[in-house]
């Protein structure tokens, strides 16, 4: 299998515009993310897909590869445009605002497809257990519930499952926005109309579920910092 990584990078993020060009350590957030992905050595090629000349030039000036795209509602739609003429089998989508992703979670995602002999899985992604009530209730943390085989049942910014009766047996998981797609599933996704659930939650992988595609979730212990707010950036600076 030919495996590539694409980092969707939109400048005008709704909650924190320009966050990818903020300085983290000695480099911008997007350059830090790009270089960390390249350094894993897992991919035949790594690209940044962006509609911003600032971000495009930033990556090019640091010796990286970038592709200009049109404007899109979701990162997956942006990646689909970027890869349609690239020869590959599996596309790993690493969020530009997740600069601390490590080797092992990416290896786990790739392994999903190596073991999927019947090619039933359209998309694989990561989840991590949440423990603090504040984190569970935070709408910036997308929660996911899965079946017994690890396939996604639903994603939500709300608390799922709802705790109707107090119990210590329920686990809560945060969805980490790192996706691994089969290329043909990604291209199909980009042609599908958004449905009300995706529009309401502003969670793009719901579109896969609404059209009956299978999403495999892998539990990880990876703890990074997704930079959605200025406060997240300060946390990331401390982690650096």
TrEMBL record:
Pathway: Nucleotide-sugar biosynthesis; CMP-3-deoxy-D-manno-octulosonate biosynthesis; CMP-3-deoxy-D-manno-octulosonate from 3-deoxy-D-manno-octulosonate and CTP: step 1/1. It catalyses: 3-deoxy-alpha-D-manno-oct-2-ulosonate + CTP = CMP-3-deoxy-beta-D-manno-octulosonate + diphosphate. One of its GO terms (molecular function) is 3-deoxy-manno-octulosonate cytidylyltransferase activity. Keywords: Cytoplasm, Lipopolysaccharide biosynthesis, Nucleotidyltransferase, Transferase. It is found in: Cytoplasm. It holds the Pfam family CTP_transf_3. Coiled coil: none annotated. Signal peptide: none annotated. InterPro entries: Cytidylyl_trans, KdsB, Nucleotide-diphossugar_trans. It is an enzyme of class 2 (transferase). Its EC number is 2.7.7.38. The keyword Transmembrane does not apply. Activates KDO (a required 8-carbon sugar) for incorporation into bacterial lipopolysaccharide in Gram-negative bacteria. Belongs to the KdsB family. This is 3-deoxy-manno-octulosonate cytidylyltransferase.
